[in-house]
## 1
Amino acid sequence: MGLRGDAAVVGFAEYKHERKYSGPRKFTIEQWADLAQMALADAGLEASDINGIVCSDIRESGMFMPATIAEYLGQPVNFAERVDLGGANAVGMIWRAAAAIELGVCDVVVCALPARPIPSNPQPQPVNPMRYFGASSMNWGSPQAEFEVPYGNLAQNCGYAMIAQRYAADYGYDAAAMAKLVVDQRRSAALNPNAAFYGQPIEIEDVLGSKLIADPLRMLEIVMPVAGGGAVVVASREIAAKCSRRPVFVTGFGEHLTIKTPTYAEDACFTPVGPASQQAFEMAGVTPGNVDAAQIYDCYTITVLLTLEDAGFCDKGEGMQFITEHDLTFSGDFPMNTHGGQLGMGQAGAAGGMTQTIEAVRQIMGRAAERQLGTCDTVYISGTGGVMSEQSALLLQGG
Amino acid sequence: MDNDFAKPLPRPTPTSQPFWDGLAANKIMIQHCLDCATWVFYPRSRCSSCLSDNLEWREVTGDAVLYTFTLTRQPTAPHFADEVPQKLAVVELAEGVRMTSTLVNIDEADVRVGIKLKPVFAKRDGVTLLLFEPI
């Protein structure tokens, strides 16, 4: 079962992540075209080489999104997917692209997640109640609308906080360890010009002194919304051989979905990234002990803690100790989120996970500048959508 | 508050109506699968374990423990500003099913995972919410 490892990431593009974006405003579909062009150019490929696309939502269209994008780019495609996995989008897009390439239906696939603000509409539209309440649905018959929203179980903070609270009851909780995780990532972000917190390292006291949002989560343990986005080009081994960059082969993946709302999780402290990661490691023939870096989806500190444990980097209940005992910066003994993670980059909506995949590619290609690892051939990446309800894992390896 | 949205309340469906009717009569009705003996929550047209549609509504006591919680320091939506800190809870009934709820009649300092809870039937505009308080 699985990939042969014959598809590779050959190029990428990443917008600078900015808290206040002041550049020219473009529609999502225009940003898609910009990112596609930049990623193709990075790989040394042409627009006419595209024969597959993987997208997520675009703001200008409610359906038929892949066809709309193919038409806009002017490129016919043999493979088109719209992925709806929230923060697991980037990983989900890349393995789907690799699978389609290995099936032989296409050989150059663009996966893009633009997330800059679009132009202000001169004719203001009515506010969508779903967006207003931060819910996934306010439709009649939706389980969330009926059994979550009326109790105020809305957006993401409270769900992650409740998972953290249960973890604390089952395994104990060390707020200073969670703060150190943020501090290590911010040290890496401080050297990443694309990060919203470029040049802004912090100390443990800053995290512990930041505002409590939903017990036990504090402001600096929660991603800051930013403008950003990114894209990668996935290509066949034959195309990759002609590209200018070191090919970054997709050798393992896993994806696992269980619930929408963690209230209904069998055990809130065992997350879907466990089975997803196990599959990815087995497929690639890699173990957690022999990766050169881990780029772990980090919408909240608790997400990283549970992923470290469930993916097998340490045992259940030992994540806090693992964080305390290891230097997680780019120069440390367990390099993790070497771009600063989303806690350091800022989170550009559902494009956030793209920063983790791009940093993995950047490190393997040897293009991480001041943050470059000495040896980087194998990187683990995770993606998390919803409230640890839909998760994915990826193994990338340099050719 | 400058928006047109009312505080969100549940809208019963043909499938869930017996649950909400039960709450209106101060009863907790939960579905039980007659084929595999699974308790099912939230209400569904088929069993969440075996997909059988052989489900029976049964009244349960509402005895529960607190599975987890958070205290919100800023409202999860503007309409909940008057409840801050919201005592959001995942509650586990004696039958094993879990549900999202809110704790009432309890001090912040007393909210801990594992405390015993009993139901509170909170009448709202045309619907009854199921809240919980400590025993």
## 2
Amino acid sequence: MQPFSYIRPATPQEAVGAFAQAGEGARFIAGGTTLYDLMKLNIERPRHLIDVSAIEGFNRIETDGDRLRFEANAAMSAVATDPVVARDYPVLAESLWKAASQQLRNMATVGGNLLQRTRCMYFRNGAGGIYPCNKREPGSGCAAIGGLDRGQAVLGTSDTCTAVSPGDWPVALVAMDASIEVLGPNGTRSMPVADLYRLPDTTPHVEFTLDPGEMITAIVVPKTLAGRRSTYHKIRDRESYAFALTSAAVALEMNDDRVERARIALGGVATRPWRAPEAEEVLAGQRLTPELALAAGRAAFRDARPGRHNGFKVELGARTIADALRIAADRSRT
Amino acid sequence: MSATPFADRARIDAFDKVRGATAYAADVPLPGMLHAILVPSRVAKGHLATLPVEDAMRVPGVVRVLTPDDFPPPPEPVRFPNADAPPTLHREIAFRGQPVALVVAETLEAAMEGAEHVVPTYEEQTFAATKRSALAVREEARPTVFGDAEAALARANATVDVEYESPTQHHNPIELISTTAVWAEGRLTIYEGTQFASGLKEVVARILRIDPGIVDVKSPTVGGAFGQKGWVQQQTAIVARAAMLTGRPVKLVTPRGQIFHLAKFRPNSTHRIRLGADADGRMIAAHYVSDQQQSRGGTFPSNYHAGPSRLYGIQNYYGGAVDYRIDTQPPGHMRAPHEHPACFAFECAVDELAYRIGADPVEFRIANDTRVDPQNGRALSSRYLNECLSRGAQRFGWERRTPEPGSMRASDGSLVGWGVASGTYPALVTATVASLRISADGTTRFVTTHHEFGQGIKTAIAAVLLDGLEIDPTRLDIVLGDTTAAPQQITAGSWGTFSVVPTAALAVERMRAALSELLGGRQVSGNIHQQLAAIRRPYLTVDVSQLGPGQEAAALERLRRGQYAIAGPTFPEFTSMSYIAHFIEVRVEPTTRRIRMPRVVSVADCGRVVSPRTAASQVRGGVIWAFGASLREATEVDPRYGGFLNNDLADYVVPVNADIGEIEVDFINEPDLLANSVGVKGLGEVAMVGASAAIANAIFHATGKRLRELPIRIEHLL
């Protein structure tokens, strides 16, 4: 708990201007479902909150033309129930439906969702110097390595951090080759969602590639027929309201029972939303059989580096991919 | 021996609850209230080196920071049950999260900010975080022994020798732990969700060295207790002291994250069980040693044998009990304390033995019935476990089960497993007092011992009063948990209904007699209110008290002093136990091995059912808790750091609605008239006992895998 200033700008330009003016310790806030939580845990200690939730017309959902475009403030629940998204892109709708609770989905925005921070227990529950964490206090060490690491990542880890990228929505977007529009002090730019996330490497506290003061303004998903044959399959410790142990976003372009192209991205197992080209290659041009699906799943984890208690994620992740491929393939194209 | 079944009746507090109108302890509005936040110890063991409070005092709004210096030294040689030290502030740190200071401020925000500015320094010491730590101290408790288990095992035809483990778990009721204290006009009033208002009154007075006569405790509806609020809590005397020092009402509501290190919890326990059966399929011996984690000074008993030793007619029983003393806060009672982990282990072992000898698990249990308490040969006041098993099997469709593990499949390819297990829990009772007043103005007030925490005790009392008296149900006020109204007794161990319902029945009987005497044969029409009005009596009061079967009169005096006044399950003439049988279907997904529980049938023998609706709700809640206890919940300890790591509801995984399938509840509903005049036994605890074993047994039936450590998770079946 520390004092902070709070403003509600009316336009994205005003918001970016306010951020630049605020200087050190400024944070954008939209739905508040992550930031307030982390403030209560004393992990985020912003001095200035720039609340973008009051910006009008910043939550449009556009489905005409050759792309889907979601403005940053669209609620998760709104995008999940959009008829075009629900019908033509189940992978997107399901990734939203299977996240959080209805109350949170009503508050959380699809833009803010991309910047959710890790749920690593040592990161969240250790403020005040109880557990070292290189994300929370750079250079302090990582308690998860050699510790209770059942929930930790097996892909993309480093010797300083194994924290899982927690999102579902970013995983689906990465599978669908989505990009984001960004507004910052130096104007607008666009980048693939996949490029938003850094690997922990030696600087796990630097999680995103946004520059200071840059704000996500929209998410753009190129339209594809593969959307119809898609799913977001999520395995977790209970039937709802839990983060993924393993998840797979899958979209297929099929020619009869042959896979022309598969898009596969993984959640719950990696330090960032994880595209799995190794699995995609196994499937390309092949007839989809249960055995091949499992082989593709296993290929995705070829480079996995499990810890003490999370080795099961390798097999579970492979089977999750295999099941997701079956579910997606069973979906009709019409 | 049947009595008219009680009618189904809505919860009398349901309408208030769904409107959010029910007042909990932390909802009491008081003028000039201050807000408090505890400062927890960062280290798991050690000594406070410095405790600077100046920075906190500079935060605008902070009124006072209480430190160990604000408390009188502990009165010697008084012991504080189940506490390592009197629950106040101390310089010696016995566990992570132990309160070291209390910041009191004009607003909650200022108190939180102030608490962050109290940054003590510590002289740290090495600690034992788990039972397996080098510094853990092993202590043996008195065993439960009858017959000769070793000799009987040696001659047994078939045996099993298995070890089961139940993890550390925390209650996590929705209501957070809170205390509000008022020091005014020479009296200390404490509002707290507690299961033992009078005990709290006595102990807090003793800690603060004041006369218990000036302390009042009010525990209005508790938002879930389950044993967490059964004894004086860590924070109560600290908040009371703050009210005395500031002269203003002080309220503390503890954040969820702190509760994991502040509250009681279910200790991790291990259960090594050897069972033997003779050639006829009768169990002849059980050799069972339990161990549990314990705090350095904790007194949570290692009492795992009360249930398993009486579940069947096993003549030779050795029940050993071991404590491992480590550096945590004291563990304590958590719903179905002892019997849940014990019957999980025991009823899985029984299932293993049934499979070993090729017996049907239901028939095997039925064949091992007993009519007496094997511990002492006394008669059982009532026992319908076999009826629970038979009726449950029939309702569940058990005859369609094929015994071979992995032999049943659902249409989607899932492995289907059907498991059964029994449960038992002692039927216990406390001394109680009650006062019933019916007024001519249309109101009725029933004041008694015991507490409401959602289990439905008020609804059960109302059922008895409304069944026996023609009074206005809409103006019936039942007052519980208030030391200014009646002496209070700990409400736990499923003895609330057993204790209070017969007392309410006695009050009804006395009231009818008093009214009849008053009317002196006159025929006066209308309900009792109208009759009193007609004869110009403003009200009529009866006062009653009641003891358990054979309970000595001194128990009433102990009740008045806020001391334990509990009897059972062994009474002079008989032993009383409640029973249940659970039948559970699980489905295990063929690929990712998710475990689902689509269907449960639970049949309970809790004597006569006074409140069918809340009773059924108790059983459903118990089954859901058992589901959580066996497939979801564990509090994690990283032994390098001590304390509990997953201290929030995101990482301490409890079940969600989507986890829970259909739960069918039935009752034998045979009154136990030896136990008391109404024929009730306890239900709230036995409801969950054995259900975890039924789940684990069902998983074995589905997969062929015996998983002996809870919680069972996806990785154990991959």
